[in-house]
Design brief:
523 residues; alpha/beta; 7-stranded mixed β-sheet; 3-stranded mixed β-sheet; 16 helices; 48% helix
Length: 523
């Protein structure tokens, strides 16, 4: 009888824990990632279709923006969560290229799946992918061009294609470029976050315009307050325009009418001092984050000074940046140097609508550090998608301005990188060459998807692109109708392409390194 017979087995993990090992791990991870990328595949490119997202709260959204789609999905699978994390990182870094990054990662894993079934070791794949990424970077270095006015406009147009704003592509692209160049002239850190959006709720897309200032929705407290002011000085307060409340309770004993009158007169004198401070400063418009005392409001109205209160922190900050004012906490501390200026100030009340707030327009600022795109259109859902597309285009264009480096789009750079990887693989003696060839095929997923979404034959077009890249016929890519042609009018910031490719490659290599999945839930 064995020495250890009858002893109970050693239990390390709970019974419901499930451990998956071997080739089954890669198959499951790769399948999940491929399904996730295939979900976004029909939305890619200028001919991409939209997804309707039905949220848990009953609201809906219609979009083809990859970042928006993955943000709304309730993902549970660990591989899919890695894809979501990768997409979020790409969105935060570049503001564009999320869908292409996810497609590349899915293609890399699908190519890896084929080689794994043929017996190639996962680490051999990782080494090959790493070498291929270096070859792709070298091709990007060779194809990178600088920014010009024409190419900058093309960057904005490229980012807008396939989005809701494409219907007015020639109208929005100059607005985006003008907004960013205006900001760049007035601040070193100009970016998309300094461009506000305002929905008019009326008109059409071509009624949209750039406002050198800000527009806010707030109720103007008195109909008699001045309107349609020109060349005005603006004071911006970060607090209330009223007597400050005491932090401690106090009781005042009044024994006669004269004492009461003195108390009331003292309070009124303090209010008059605040009003006098506004008038002495020379401000014709006062914007404040807090409340406005009614007595002070009436006094300022008598002097034709427009006062708007209860603006939130972002509105106060944007208004100060637009007019060039300093935000002061108390009007008693204001100086002439703290005032800003704008060329036009007007407010509009829409009596025929259910809109509670008035529309206050601060426009024609001389050196605005914040500008606003006023977006026309009546549909709420459609307008939100247009604004999302404009924001992506602003991010891409500002990135191009900051870096000064552009790469051709339309699948052109991906086809040229695929050729560079194949050429580099010829010097590889081992099995890593197979991985590099797989990497090249994965890169061609981008032009192939553009062709498929345009209704063309992907195989024929990809073969044409291979021939063009081999003969170095210039920047040849996929046109919006799905044919092969010049890609001179389609440009991306280099960071969008490079960071997307790096993120896709690193995520794919991370998944290929996993050889065992341990689930404490048993699924």
């Amino acid at each position: 009888m064995s020495e250890h017979a009858g002893r109970p087995p050693v239990v390390i993990v709970k019974d419901q824990t499930k451990i998956t090992s071997g080739a089954e791990v890669q198959d499951k991870l790769i399948s999940a990632a491929r399904i996730f990328s295939d979900l976004l595949k029909p939305t890619f490119g200028p001919r991409g279709l939209d997804k309707m997202l039905y949220k848990t709260d009953g609201s809906t959204a219609i979009t083809n923006d990859g970042a928006k789609i993955i943000a709304e999905l309730m993902v549970k699978h660990p591989a899919a969560k890695m894809m979501v994390s990768m997409g979020n990182s790409q969105e935060e870094a570049c503001g564009d290229g999320v869908t292409s990054t996810l497609l590349l990662c899915g293609a890399l894993l699908q190519e890896a799946s084929t080689l794994l079934r043929k017996g190639l070791h996962p680490l051999t794949l990782v080494d090959g992918y790493h070498t291929a990424l270096a070859a792709a970077r070298e091709q990007m270095d060779a194809d990178t061009l600088g920014v010009s006015d024409e190419r900058l406009l093309a960057v904005a147009e490229t980012a807008l294609r396939g989005k809701g704003a494409e219907a007015a592509l020639d109208h929005f692209s100059p607005i985006i470029v003008e907004a960013l160049t205006t900001l760049a002239a007035n601040r070193d850190d100009a970016g998309a976050e300094h461009v506000a959006m305002f929905k008019t709720g009326t008109g059409g897309l071509r009624d949209s315009r750039l406002v050198r200032g800000v527009i806010v929705n707030r109720r103007v407290l008195m109909d008699s307050l001045p309107n349609r002011l020109s060349d005005v000085k603006v004071a911006v307060l970060g607090g209330d325009l009223k007597i400050r409340s005491m932090t401690r309770d106090a009781e005042i004993q009044i024994t006669s009418a004269d004492q009461l009158d003195s108390f009331v007169d003292a309070e009124q004198a303090r209010k008059d001092a605040l009003a006098e401070a506004v008038m002495t400063s020379g401000a014709q418009v006062v914007l404040c984050a807090g409340e406005v005392d009614r007595d002070i409001l009436h006094r300022l109205a008598d002097e034709d000074i427009l006062t708007v209160g209860e603006l939130d922190a972002s509105e106060i900050r944007n208004a100060a940046d637009a007019v060039g004012a300093n935000i002061v906490d108390s009007i008693l501390d204001i100086e002439a140097a703290d005032l800003g200026a704008c060329g036009s100030m007007l407010w509009e009340r829409r009596e025929a609508t259910d809109q509670v707030e008035d529309i206050i327009r601060i426009e024609e600022c001389a050196n605005p550090r914040v500008v606003t795109i006023e977006v026309g259109g009546g549909g709420e859902t459609a307008t939100e998608e247009i604004i999302r597309g404009l924001h992506d285009a602003l991010r891409a264009t500002s990135l191009a301005l900051a870096s000064g480096e552009l790469l051709p789009g339309g699948g052109s750079i991906h086809a040229r990188m695929a050729h560079a990887v194949r050429r580099a693989s010829e010097s590889q003696p081992g099995r890593a060459r197979l991985a590099m060839d797989a990497y090249a095929r994965a890169l061609e997923t981008i032009p192939a998807t553009l062709v498929e979404n345009s209704g063309g034959d992907a195989l024929d077009r990809v073969l044409e692109l291979r021939a063009a890249a081999r003969e170095d016929d210039g920047f040849v890519g996929i046109t919006p109708d799905g044919s092969v042609g010049t890609a001179d009018g389609v440009w991306h910031p280099r960071a969008v392409i490079e960071e997307g490719l790096e993120a896709a490659t690193e995520t794919a290599m991370s998944m290929l390194r996993i050889d065992q999945v341990i689930s404490a839930r048993g699924d």
